[in-house]
Amino acid sequence: MAASRSERRAKSELNRVLVIDDEPDIRELIDLTLTRMGLESDSVGSVAEAKARLEERSYQLCLTDMRLPDGDGLEIVRHVAEQYVETPVAVITAFGSAENAVAALKAGAFDYLAKPVGLEQLRTLVKSALKLPGSESRVDSSQSLRGESVGMQQVRGMIEKLARSQAPVYISGESGSGKELAARLIHAHSPRANALFVPVNCGAIPETLMESEFFGYRKGAFTGADSERDGFFQAASGGTLFLDEVADLPLAMQVKLLRAIQEKRVRKVGSTTEEPVDVRIICATHRNLRECVDKGSFRQDLYYRLNVIELRMPPLRECQDDIAALVDAILVRLGSEARLSADALRALEHYSFPGNVRELENILERATALCSGAVIEVEDLHLSVVESPEDKAGRGSETLDDYLNRLEKQAILDALQKTGNNRTAAARLLGITFRSMRYRLERLGIE
Description:
Layout: H1 5-11, E1 16-20, H2 24-36, E2 40-44, H3 47-56, E3 61-65, E4 67-68, E5 71-72, H4 73-83, E6 89-93, H5 98-107, E7 111-114, H6 119-129, H7 150-163, E8 169-172, H8 179-188, E9 197-201, H9 210-215, H10 232-235, E10 240-244, H11 251-263, E11 265-266, E12 275-276, E13 280-285, H12 289-295, H13 300-306, E14 309-312, H14 323-333, E15 339-340, H15 342-349, H16 356-370, E16 375-376, H17 378-381, H18 389-394, H19 400-418, H20 423-430, H21 434-444
Parallel strand pairs: 1-2, 1-3, 3-6, 6-7, 8-13, 8-14, 9-10, 10-13, 15-16
Antiparallel strand pairs: 4-5, 11-12
């Protein structure tokens, strides 16, 4: 009879690692490295052996090769994710197999290593992974995503899952919807919480300074380089690098960023050698990154590297049930004792908020400064357009995005009908590329 979960846990040693690889020399190299780190390890060479060992005892980390005699590493990743959710899994991929690494991260892998296995990267990965079980971060109570709407509950649940992974995360959403706050929460709940969270606004750096800002420079590398300086990657090593407005990166810098992410190494300006960095990448933009790829302004290979897992931040108009709670929290943070009248709150609940939560903060800060009493009235809000419930019902509660999507979908369906469902001809009729056509069909759910 198979051992029970409690019996397996009782038999497990602290910080024991399961190594799965069909090459004896690689298993020996990893075992030796783990031993020198004071860890215990078991080594197997197949999927079947790995599943048997996992049934016998608990492990604090699994390291698996992607290619195995009776299956692949993705099968191990999915099996552990389903049966042993507390155990992180890292995969070992062949050099240059970016697709395999991305597939593993999407399947739930904690991180990946490329062959030939670098011992320094192996040690860094193991140290980071072994912080996962029971890791707790101290998060400032003011730095939280408030609200009980379905959209916000889904975001919080996703953040909790993403915090356990090392996978790159792409946060999409409109300006002011809380993308940086979400990135900070992922970092704060992760095993990297004790290291730095380094936010970078990619659109605010002059193109001529980008390489030195990201990777650092050596003394004398250029005029004015009077001393050696680290870049964003070195500053975030061991922590998280947040690339805000990543769509604004010029193509030349995108190539360098792609290499740094793939190799996990950077070269300072003026240096002839590379140095390893241990950085988790989280990026965000208010623009549609997929459309940027279609237009040629963003590299497709970098897009797939960054968009391993997407976290969508809903606009405030989709979370209107949360407005009352947000208002209370913002007023407390502003140190204001004022409160909103019922009419003022109703006006906010029916306002479209093109600037999202950031706009709500600005509205309330202005209102507390301008209101004459302790109660904020509708006129104190100075909303550009105040929609009544009747107005909103009259237009069917349709947002601008919904309206534009409906028009776009109808135009595509008309073009397909005219061309006998020939997608290439329909794209030509609409004046767009076939790739853009295929993306729009998928986004709009057109079969």
